[in-house]
Design the sequence.
């Protein structure tokens, strides 16, 4: 389903939409600076080296949903653990089952845990295209866990499709609630060295974003602790966000979206973001919305709040049915389904 709203530019009533220069073209100083290994602590440098060694060993891992992950882990396994078992599936291992140099970096990174008579990595690594990202080990039960999963892959794919449609011009990018940094860093890899700002309120996410930026050789990155837009300046040519969109009883930062159905944070990111866009800028929101009695309340709320503003608004369902297990419990026991959606808001 794709919905396109014709919201008239108030400064030009005779024109429905004027194609903006999404990649800016405005001359402004960069607000980002190149991160390097020297910017990291000792433990962070060890985690960086661990990621580099995994890449050298051609490590690849695709992270799946927690429910599917549990199903795979429940299967009997008698083989010696591989790097994918240890750093992807978060399986326990014996000390002698991991190469000494990898074990050393894991220990120096302070990410080595005991698991009964065995050991376990407190960090995972997932691959996305040619990039590799450190994030929290399975299961992500702690309040400051940094999540990476199927939504990350869908978000990155949607960003790639969006960027393919934009003129090749300089951009200033902001990723709000960046988590592992996968969204902003994967977008940056598709563009000619753009300044990128990654924000989050989760300090563990900020730490891993910083490491992942260096690990993936993405220059001109600034990491900012910020509650939404509180500590960012801008203006930005492209604002992106993949916020949490569920009601989580544990209120985990990576999962809890607030409000009665979980989309309050998404709504605030979209509406507040308009004040931080440069002329001709674009905001891209990848999120989820509960459909109740056939009505998408997030879409209705955005459409109503944007009415009369000088913007163009598009809204699209990317996946009609995710997190089906949530339908068994409040507040989603009255929902038809939970959909993944993408909202795009362009300003003149």
Sequence:
């Amino acid at each position: 389903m794709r919905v396109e709203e014709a919201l008239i530019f108030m400064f030009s009533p005779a024109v429905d939409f004027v194609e903006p220069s999404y990649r800016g073209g405005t001359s402004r100083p960069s607000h980002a600076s190149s991160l390097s290994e020297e910017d990291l602590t000792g433990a962070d440098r060890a985690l960086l080296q661990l990621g580099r060694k995994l890449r050298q060993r051609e490590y690849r891992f695709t992270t799946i949903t927690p429910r599917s992950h549990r199903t795979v882990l429940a299967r009997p396994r008698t083989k010696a653990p591989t790097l994918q078992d240890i750093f992807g599936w978060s399986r326990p291992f014996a000390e002698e089952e991991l190469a000494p140099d990898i074990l050393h970096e894991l220990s120096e990174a302070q990410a080595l845990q005991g698991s009964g008579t065995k050991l376990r990595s407190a960090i995972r690594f997932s691959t996305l295209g040619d990039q590799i990202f450190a994030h929290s080990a399975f299961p992500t039960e702690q309040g400051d866990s940094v999540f990476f999963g199927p939504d990350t892959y869908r978000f990155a794919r949607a960003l790639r499709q969006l960027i393919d449609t934009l003129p090749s011009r300089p951009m200033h990018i902001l990723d709000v609630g960046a988590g592992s940094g996968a969204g902003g860093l994967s977008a940056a890899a598709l563009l000619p060295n753009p300044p990128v700002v990654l924000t989050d309120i989760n300090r563990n996410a900020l730490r891993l974003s910083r490491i992942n930026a260096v690990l993936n050789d993405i220059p001109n990155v600034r990491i900012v602790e910020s509650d939404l837009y509180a500590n960012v300046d801008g203006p930005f040519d492209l604002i992106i966000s993949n916020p949490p969109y569920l009601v989580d009883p544990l209120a985990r930062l990576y999962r809890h979206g607030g409000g009665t159905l979980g989309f309050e944070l998404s709504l605030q990111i979209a509406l507040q973001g308009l004040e931080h866009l440069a002329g001709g800028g674009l905001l891209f929101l990848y999120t989820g919305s509960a459909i109740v009695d056939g009505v998408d309340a997030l879409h209705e709320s955005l459409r109503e709040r944007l009415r009369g503003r000088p913007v163009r608004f598009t809204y699209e369902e990317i996946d009609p049915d995710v997190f089906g297990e949530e339908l068994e419990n409040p507040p989603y026991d009255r929902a038809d389904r939970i959909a993944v959606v993408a909202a795009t808001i362009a300003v003149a």
About this structure: The longest helix spans residues 42-56.
